[in-house]
Amino acid sequence: MDKSLHGAIALVTGAAGGIGRAICAQMQDAGAIVIATDLATTKPDVPCEIYLQHDVADPARWAEIAKEVEHRYGKLDCLVNNAGYSIVESIEGTSLDAWRKVQAINVESILHSLHVFTPMLRKAGASRPGGSSIVNLSSVGGLRGAAFNAAYCTSKGAVKLFTKSAAIEFGVQKWPIRVNSVHPGGIETPMMFGIMDRYVELGAVPSIEAAQAGVVTSHPIGRLGHPEEIAAGVVFLCSPGASFMTGSELVIDGGFTAR
To answer: Which residues are part of the catalytic machinery?
Structure first.
């Protein structure tokens, strides 16, 4: 089966993070023309053809980026909604503003992306084997809850069901767009280590060493994952090799959810 992305136009949000950077690198290696976006105003060290500053919670900025992609390429083959945000806080301590910020970045941004890019994805999918592809990054937190992480888990559960709804709706309309979600387990990224630090601050675990040991123990494979292992799944879902996959949850979690 064809797993290459030769000549595909691909946009990746949250490109400067650990997983985002790995996705950009592997998509480029697979032959894609990568458009990377993130909050930084200057280009980070991310493999891509072009970099665009991007607040994914801003619908006006999504519209500007869509115009830029339309002008440069006239289509979009692959959209990877990877940008994400987490707060680690008790439910009592979670303010409504903090809650809404998590939902705006993790969930509402995906709605913004489909508002502006669906026409280009339909155009590209009509002539691309397997159609065009949307990959939304959820989490194992979107499959089961976690203490002190209610806002994040809620948002990632929403990503899972938004993905399924979009896949069904596009299928009903016979649009050549596949939509799937990816659910990473514990991955060695700055965000993951920041979450563990916060658990120590809240007194949920006695030390960072205990936090790290607890996270590793929760993964039957016996270690944290690497960003490249998530990126490989994203590349597959964007490729014609995944042509019969839509509305799926690709869980890449070292057995975390198997317990």
So the answer is: 152
